[in-house]
Write a structure and sequence with these properties.
Helix content is 7%, strand content 34%. With 355 residues, the protein is mainly β. Belongs to the glycosyl hydrolase 16 family.
Length: 355
């Protein structure tokens, strides 16, 4: 099996468990993170709510309350003249993956022959064109249990691009405990930007992740036969309140409606994250790759666009809970993607400046 690691695989190796407390929960990090992660001293780069106190959990932040889901106003965020990149974008408003609108620029598999982390297996049948409950034409990812394997959807762009770049997607995540992700990855799997990583339900034994978004990135390097993975930890898990209340019951439930997720890859050492048209987080400078894993002084390689689902068994108390038919199989696992759009200053895809 190839040594490729994804955001959800890396995260599964980093986090063992959380308590059942909500805003006050602290991730148990001291003994399980890569040694290089423990020394991180990220300053507050999240755009915080003024309504609620800062969470005791240093990995969590509360974004500004915003109940108006809309695409980013690019003109107000330094991208007014940027253009859509057709090779990396798709409206998914056709009826079949045999349509040239899909086959020309996209494929229903991973960037290489790897089929995913067990028990996940990415298969073509895990994605299809259809209609969301609210009427939008979408590409739909849905999981199916086959024996001890969970067959999931994976869609990737054939082309790739480098910064400056803005990726935005309108997504309704599944009502299941599968990982729903929209992200970017280099061909050699050493540079990764995660626009969205999320879970739709709140498990009885480990409910921490059910109402949160993970906004992060990774840099990887093989050192002495060990796959090293850096990702920032502090203030990478986001919650948003529906109003002025500050209790867990006031958190937005991301699986109940479509939301728009965006990430601006400004340059090799700057990322900006947006949710429903509002900036919520930035990562800059040495926080991008403090250990030099890319050997590129930041993130400089061209990245593929990826939409995927996967099983992350670390989230479950036991195998029986993981294989609950109501949450790993059937309609509750449907992830709806209305569209994905990628913009750059011009139609050029850019060139990797470090190989």
């Amino acid at each position: 099996m190839k040594a490729t690691l994804l955001s959800f695989i890396a995260l599964s190796s980093l986090i063992l468990s959380c308590t059942n407390k909500e805003e006050s929960t602290l991730l148990e990090s001291a003994s399980i993170f890569d040694d290089n992660l423990i020394s991180q001293n990220l300053t507050n780069k999240s755009i915080l709510s003024t309504n609620c106190p800062k969470p005791a959990d240093a990995n969590l932040f509360i974004a500004i309350t915003n109940n108006n889901s809309k695409a980013l106003n690019r003109s107000q965020n330094g991208m007014g003249t940027w253009v859509l990149i057709p090779e990396l974008s798709n409206e998914f408003n056709y009826s079949s993956k045999t349509d040239p609108a899909f086959t020309t620029d996209w494929k229903d598999s991973y960037i290489n022959s790897w089929t995913g982390p067990a028990p996940t297996k990415w298969v073509a049948s895990g994605s299809s064109l259809g209609t969301a409950p609210t009427g939008e034409k979408c590409i739909i990812l849905q999981a199916t249990k086959v024996g001890n394997t969970l067959e999931c959807g994976m869609v990737t762009s054939k082309a790739k691009a480098t910064f400056p770049l803005y990726q935005e997607a309108r997504v309704r995540i599944s009502d299941s405990h599968l990982a729903n992700a929209v992200w970017m990855l280099s061909t050699d799997s050493r540079e990764e930007i995660d626009n969205l990583e999320s879970y739709g339900d709140k498990l009885g034994s480990k409910p921490y992740f059910g109402d949160k978004l993970h906004l992060s990135h990774h840099t990887f390097k093989d050192i002495a036969g060990i796959r090293k993975d850096y990702q920032p930890q502090l203030e990478t898990w986001m919650i948003r309140k529906t109003g002025t209340g500050c209790n867990a019951t006031d958190d937005v439930k991301w699986n109940t409606d479509f939301h728009i997720f965006g990430v601006k890859w400004v340059d090799a050492t700057n990322l900006e994250y947006y949710v429903d048209g509002v900036k919520v987080r930035t990562v800059t400078g040495t926080d991008i790759d403090p250990n030099g894993y890319t050997d590129c002084s930041g993130m400089k390689k061209a990245l593929h666009m990826i939409i995927s689902q996967a099983a992350q068994t670390w989230r479950f108390a036991d195998v029986n809970e993981f294989y609950n038919q109501n949450i790993t199989n059937g309609a509750r696992t449907k992830m709806y993607i209305d569209w994905i759009r990628v913009y750059r200053p011009n139609q050029n895809l850019g060139t990797s400046t470090c190989n």
